[in-house]
Amino acid sequence: MRKRPCALLLFLFLVVLLPAQSLPEFEKKVTEFTLPNGLHFIVLERHDAPVVSFHTLVNAGSVDDPGGKTGLAHMFEHMAFKGTRSIGTKDYASEQKAMAAIEAVYDKLEAERNLEGRADPKRIQALEAELKASIDKAASYVDANAYVRIVEENGGVGMNAGTGMDSTNYFYSLPANRIELWFLLESRRFLHPVYREFYKERDVVREERRMRVESSPQGKLMEVLLAMAFMAHPYRNMPGGWAGDIEELRVRDAEQFFRTYYVPVNMTIAIAGDVLPAEAKRLADKYFAALPKAPPPPPVHTGEPAQDGERHGVVISPAQPLLMIGYKRPDQVDKDDPVFDVVSALLSSGRTGLLYKEMVRDKRIALAAAAQASFPATKYPNLFWLYAVPSPGRSVEENEKVLYEILERLKSEKVDAASLERVKTKIRAGLIRSLDSNSGLAEQLTYYHVNYGNWRKLFTGIEEINRVSADDVQRVARQYFTTESRTVVSTIRPSSQGVPK
Questions:
Q1: Judgement on whether residues 322 and 177 belong to the same structural domain of the protein
Q2: Would you state the pLDDT for residue 350?
Q3: CA max distance for the chain
Q4: Are 245 and 151 found together in one domain?
Q5: Residues 240 and 317 in one domain
Q6: What is the pTM assigned to this prediction?
Q7: Which are the contacts of 229, defined by CB distance < 8 A and separation ≥ 6?
Q8: Which H or E run includes 117?
Q9: 432: domain range?
Q10: Contact 390, 366 (CB under 8 A)
């Protein structure tokens, strides 16, 4: 009972804020246009401060990696700010020849390696030395960090990129009087891509996998969960890619991926801040209209077959025991998508979540326990994900048992009205926080436009959350939290005899 005033205060806070962010009012500030080549822009006017945020979403992620070339989409994140034909180089003509020489030597090396049993080890060694020398020569023409330096010298902040399963994102902010600089830099990256230091960045991507997966119990367990839960669909591959694939990626692979997926019709750009739509349109025509029109890329055709039995996996690790569970669920456009959001919030909304209260606070069998509505992404059917970190002296099996008991209560007992309203309020608060900054707004506008076909889903999604009932929660729990659709993975410690305990 003592928690209800806090929820009430938060609700009153939202009541004050929501009218200012209501859809009709918001629409007045938004302008959309699409260039003849298919590139879509969303412009949001916010003249509170002389700053503008830019967010470019390419509707291609690791789910689109070609077979045998996982990690390729991720490579573009690493190549994002290497520069252009005129930025980042000391002598582009010479650099271009040096990069071509790398590929010529690499072709010879690859051909020799492909001879397998007939390959000449001495020739391979000589070609490897020649390849390294070619890479070093090309690197001598690089003006390192020139692109980033130009942005920062002109007041740019928050410059970054990210690769997900479903998309690749590029973003940063600039002072309002520098917006033309962004149009110039961003358009040239896509008009004439330069695969500068590709193999250096390939090594970085490989090292990231070593650090985040191969040397991380959490990363290993997550990789096993995905590989077991998805037998066919490419969600089974981690965004960073598999080691053997990464090590063999070539520039020609990146060029083909770019021609297929980095086409105007597959990209969306949001601009939020102190900007005039007419000026944004003028600059878009000036700089981005030159991008060649191309057909949309092919969708992912491989569907995941129905799971007809529980799957179990283990990872032997001396580290802290971990438990991860995934239940199959439909994609983001399914009618039950908002219900999964509510269920996730009921289970895992900080200290008020059922998992924390029962497993961490009361029974003290876990150091942490949480749920996530969608994993690893949302565009295609995915997983409702749960995890637990057992407390010292408590077992994975004990945590698993209690976690199932909590899920079973969602099936047998309807959630009370106060709890349901509390989590809905938290979800609404999360949305409002995301609308508080130009960069957050630009990100949300591109995401909702690409994933739902209309950025207005950003607002109408709240209405869908509000309509979720206790009956919906119970129905979804009964329908999807089944043994047959469940994949369970955990770490186990090795014994002194080398046999898992």
A1: no
A2: 83
A3: 78
A4: yes
A5: no
A6: 0.91
A7: 235, 236, 307, 311, 326, 328, 383, 487
A8: none
A9: 311-492
A10: yes
